[in-house]
Amino acid sequence: MTAKAFITGVAGLSLSEDEKAFLGNERPWGLILFARNCRDADQIRELVAEFRDVVGDLSAPVLIDQEGGRVQRLRPPLAPIYPPGAVYGALHAMDTEEGLAMARLGARLIAADLHALGIDVDCLPVLDVPATGSHDVIGDRAYGRDPKKIATIGRAAAEGLLAGGVLPVIKHIPGHGRAMVDSHLDLPRVDTPLETLRETDFPPFKMLNDMPLAMTAHVVYSALDTAPATTSARIISEIIRGEMGFDGCLMSDDLSMKALGGDFGDRTRAALAAGCDLVLHCNGDFEEMRAIAEATPELTGEASRRANAALDRRRAPEALDIEAARIAFAEQLEKATRIA
């Protein structure tokens, strides 16, 4: 069976009968989990298995936002607390190689947490370049303010996830760091000249254009379009696919965010028409899910090729003594904190 071009959330800890019927009929490409879906390890494994069984694909991807810091859906006792991106940036400033090693190891340990639960896609790394005075929706999630440094640390984190059998999602392409408002609540507008964007915001994504998956930004860049990147054919074609050279699978950010206008069918059609391969809907609202599914076609053509190519990059985790690695990671973090 061919999957449809959307990723969905669900409401709770297990699938309701309505959700089972919906998922079986509509066959979304993937599932994204949030804290509301996670109580304990056995329950998460059961939910993941139930989703894959209902959609008829035992390898269907399951996603989560597990960055560390503020954005960490799994918390103790399900998973340790990991530092936000800014901490890796600070470690990198003290010792470049140690900072990269820690970013890679932190992501590798996150991958171990996720893989054990059947989760195989993590919406990490954050490649946004924060600007002075911008909204703190990115803030310490970023690795710093230097594009090359962000790209270098972001690659280390992506490599850590891949080594642990989990696919990374680079976000928020082509850059959310200049947003003055939170796109969960309003539509950000960036009036920065295109040449400046090319010098600062775009480079981290261009330098990681070989990654399997990327997530768009619900941000208007007035130098390029009046529509936000998620629904801008020009930005996706000319900037993301063209200048940045990203040929991986492109998903929208969450369509339920208030940055986007129109009903959910309109949002879905606009994102797919602009060039997103997949649309993402997170909040588990059943009526919204149905509206999105009704407007979403089956994955075909280049979108299907890119989605399949992304999944083909999943592999078994590389050997690692996880407990020893956790001890080493914690010790190095503590040491760096004392020095700082």
Lateral arrangement of strands in the main beta sheet: 1-2-3-6-7-9-11-12
Our estimate of the beta-strand percent is 5-15%
Kindly name the structural category.
alpha/beta
In N-to-C order, the SSE pattern is EHEHEEEHHEHEEHHEEHEHEHHH
What is the number of strand segments? Answer: 12
Considering DSSP H and I runs of 4 or more, what fraction of the residues is helical?
Answer: 40-55%
Low-confidence residue ranges: none
Kindly provide the radius of gyration, computed on alpha-carbon positions and rounded to a whole number of angstroms: 19 Å
Biggest β-sheet description: 8 strands, parallel, barrel
Categorize the overall geometry.
globular
**Total helical elements:** 12
Arithmetic mean pLDDT: 96
Kindly, what is the distance between the CA atoms of the first and last residues, rounded to a whole number of angstroms? Answer: 54 Å
